[in-house]
TrEMBL record:
<feature type="active site" description="Proton acceptor">
    <location>
        <position position="214"/>
    </location>
</feature>
<dbReference type="InterPro" id="IPR015884">
    <property type="entry name" value="Malic_enzyme_CS"/>
</dbReference>
<feature type="binding site">
    <location>
        <position position="468"/>
    </location>
    <ligand>
        <name>(S)-malate</name>
    </ligand>
</feature>
<dbReference type="GO" id="GO:0005739">
    <property type="term" value="C:mitochondrion"/>
</dbReference>
<feature type="binding site">
    <location>
        <position position="285"/>
    </location>
    <ligand>
        <name>a divalent metal cation</name>
    </ligand>
</feature>
<dbReference type="Pfam" id="PF00390">
    <property type="entry name" value="malic"/>
</dbReference>
<feature type="domain" description="Malic enzyme N-terminal">
    <location>
        <begin position="120"/>
        <end position="300"/>
    </location>
</feature>
<comment type="similarity">
    <text>Belongs to the malic enzymes family.</text>
</comment>
<feature type="active site" description="Proton donor">
    <location>
        <position position="143"/>
    </location>
</feature>
<dbReference type="GO" id="GO:0006108">
    <property type="term" value="P:malate metabolic process"/>
</dbReference>
<dbReference type="InterPro" id="IPR012301">
    <property type="entry name" value="Malic_N_dom"/>
</dbReference>
<keyword id="KW-0809">Transit peptide</keyword>
<feature type="binding site">
    <location>
        <position position="286"/>
    </location>
    <ligand>
        <name>a divalent metal cation</name>
    </ligand>
</feature>
<keyword id="KW-0496">Mitochondrion</keyword>
<feature type="binding site">
    <location>
        <position position="196"/>
    </location>
    <ligand>
        <name>(S)-malate</name>
    </ligand>
</feature>
<feature type="binding site">
    <location>
        <position position="513"/>
    </location>
    <ligand>
        <name>(S)-malate</name>
    </ligand>
</feature>
<dbReference type="GO" id="GO:0042802">
    <property type="term" value="F:identical protein binding"/>
</dbReference>
Length: 627
């Protein structure tokens, strides 16, 4: 495709462009191998195989493979197993992580990321095998919190391009650009514009790191084939003055597009990727609040063509929070149907905060009968506090997304609250069952706030310090348990260690991480063939996560499962999404399983169906003759 002139590419219709791309990309077929249990064509020999991270297996190539593929003499003579390779890598990692730092600013987690990234560059199968077998240790390295450090330092860490970059300078070119990506099938795209990376603000093109990290978890947790994932950065400029002045910055050094110009760039991207890959699922990630809701509404409802997409910050965070909130009700020894009685103070009115409140109020309303009275009752259970204090209907220029939850004058009088009341005041007066932080303000749940929570109307008040990365958490579990004692329920977005409370008692630190849900939502949507991701499918995912823990665990204050179970959790969540898609008559089937056959599957058969379609990191067969 590189030889086609820009004008010619512009003149070609998508169908003709696709046929031309296929014609130009044909080679003599040399070897047939297996990719995710299906045969694919291998066009490489010798050094080209060793330099391809998908096919390279290094010293694990058998002698027969070395002879047939032109590798004899290019590797040390000893043939080792894949497990021996992993053992050697883990030994090296333990030793090297102490010495791989690039100066004092390079933390040990960032050094670990760099070592893992080098493995990813040379041997993709082994990389994912290491990640899956050590997911509890390495999820915080490839995802939050270390991915925040990676994004902040991405220009300096960039070695090998991963994913695709679309920019405002590519307007009019995106339909042809998508054919530069080598995969004929893409199942999952994670896209960001870099405008609100975690709680770190506008990082511009550096935000590609979050898309790469998310897709690593789609592979490790959901078994999405790594050859069918695509991280995407849409560069529309940056308003980060430091990056605009940085001579080493890799992105466009101009201020961000706004208004219709911005929307037209995203529109063109969506049309391009869905033209080439009609069945792809697109996850929007870390878009600033003002665009997160608007784009979600636009591509789910408002445009003539709806897309298979969701926003993890709005919907994924909400689902994980709902699962935790339902778990907190169970931990209080009450049935989940009591959830509508919970009083919840929310710190943060961004896309994540409002997304959680919207989803939680819908859950409450459904439990109360799903009518107008139910929605009004649910609305009244939330108090939202932002940087300017309590949001009420007296607020000037109130954000439209927050308006439905603004406290009304009639409610404020008997509570002794007013517009702009501080978080401490609100907690003292409301005596909430839950304080939920999505503010990105580290330490916001101060000693005063936690002391005020002692007067909660609940016997087991819950603290959700959900902001990422770790430094942005509203409080630590140590701070919460020190003040509230063993009865407190604690959850956070980033990982913390459990707290030793003495006398053999443990204060459990639950990580309410989005990775519990988004891999299962993506996998379930893929395997159901649903053309849209409905609120019901998202709700089914959250409820399955909420019910995953057994009663004994929940009563101990464990409301989220350990990350070590992520593969099983994702399987269960994906099966729940598939069954909900079938129930809503949205399922269209996947590969050889059509919608009617999906509908006939029992719950156990659905789980087995999901399991058999999850990719595992096994070296692909390159020849069909044994030694």
């Amino acid at each position: 495709m590189a030889s086609i002139s820009r004008n010619l590419r512009r003149s070609l219709a998508p169908d003709r462009l696709r046929r031309l791309h296929l014609l130009l990309s044909q080679h003599p077929r040399e070897y047939v191998t297996a990719e995710c249990h299906r045969p694919v064509v291998l066009h490489k020999r010798g050094p080209d195989i060793l330099h391809d991270p998908w096919f390279n297996r290094g010293t694990a190539f058998s002698m027969t493979e070395r002879d047939r593929l032109g590798l004899r003499g290019l590797l040390p003579p000893n043939v080792v197993s894949s497990q021996q390779q992993i053992d050697r890598f883990m030994l090296d990692l333990t030793r090297l992580q102490k010495y791989a730092r690039d100066g004092p600013s390079d933390t040990y987690p960032l050094a670990k990321w760099r070592i893992l990234n080098r493995l990813h560059d040379r041997n993709e199968t082994m990389y994912y095998k290491v990640l899956m077998e050590n997911i509890e240790e390495y999820a915080p390295i490839v995802y939050t919190p270390t991915v925040g450090l990676v994004c902040q330092n991405y220009s300096g860490l960039f070695r090998r391009p991963r994913g695709m970059y679309f920019s405002s300078e590519d307007r009019g070119e995106m339909m042809s650009m998508v054919y530069n990506w080598p995969a004929d099938q893409v199942d999952m795209i994670v896209v960001t514009d870099g405008s609100r990376i975690l709680g770190l603000g506008d990082l511009g093109v550096h935000g590609i790191g979050i898309a790469i990290g998310k897709l690593d978890l789609y592979v490790a947790a959901a078994g999405i084939n790594p050859q069918r994932v695509l991280p995407v950065m849409i560069d529309v400029g940056t308003n980060n003055e430091k990056l605009l002045k940085d001579p080493l910055y890799l992105g466009l050094q101009e201020h961000r597009l706004e208004g219709d110009e911005y929307v037209s760039v995203i529109d063109e991207f969506m049309e391009a990727v869905f033209t080439r890959w009609p069945n792809v699922i697109v996850q929007f990630e870390d878009f600033q609040t003002k665009w997160a809701f608007r784009l979600l509404q636009r591509y789910r409802c408002d445009t003539p063509k709806t897309y298979r997409m969701f926003n993890d910050d709005v919907q994924g965070t909400a689902g994980v929070a709902i699962a935790g909130l339902l778990g907190a009700v169970r931990a209080q020894g009450r049935p989940m149907i009591d959830f509508p009685k919970q009083k919840i103070v929310v710190a943060g009115a961004g896309s994540a905060g409002i997304g959680v409140v919207n989803a939680a109020s819908r859950t409450m309303a459904r439990m109360l009968g799903n009518n107008e009275v139910a929605f009004e009752s649910a609305r009244s259970q939330f108090w939202i506090v932002d940087a300017h204090g309590l949001i009420t209907e007296d607020r000037a220029d109130i954000d439209p997304d927050a308006r439905p939850f603004a406290r009304r004058k009639a409610e404020l009088g008997h509570q002794g609250l007013s517009e702009g009341a501080s978080l401490v005041e609100v907690v003292k007066k409301v005596k909430p069952d839950v304080v939920l932080g999505l503010s990105a303000v580290g330490g916001l749940f101060s000693k005063e706030v936690l002391e005020a929570l002692k007067d909660s109307s609940s016997s087991r008040p819950a603290i959700f310090a959900m902001s990422n990365p770790t430094k942005n958490a509203e409080c630590t579990p140590g701070e919460a348990f020190e003040i509230l004692g063993e009865k407190a329920i604690f959850a956070s977005g980033s990982p913390f260690h459990d707290v030793d409370l003495g006398d053999g008692k443990i204060g459990h630190s639950n990580q309410g991480n989005n990775m519990y849900l988004f891999p299962g939502i993506g996998l379930g949507t893929l395997l159901s063939g649903a053309r849209v991701i409905s609120d019901g499918m998202l709700q089914a995912a959250a409820e399955r996560l909420a019910s995953y823990m057994n009663e004994e665990e929940v009563l101990q204050g464990i409301i989220y499962p350990p990350i070590s179970r992520i593969r099983d959790i994702t399987k269960e969540v994906a099966a729940a999404v598939v069954r909900e898609a079938v129930a809503e008559e949205l399922a269209e089937g996947y590969r050889d399983m059509d919608a009617r056959e999906l509908a006939r599957l029992s719950e156990e058969e659905t789980i087995e169906y999901v399991k058999t379609n999850m990719w595992s990191p096994v070296y692909p067969t390159m020849i069909y003759k044994t030694d």
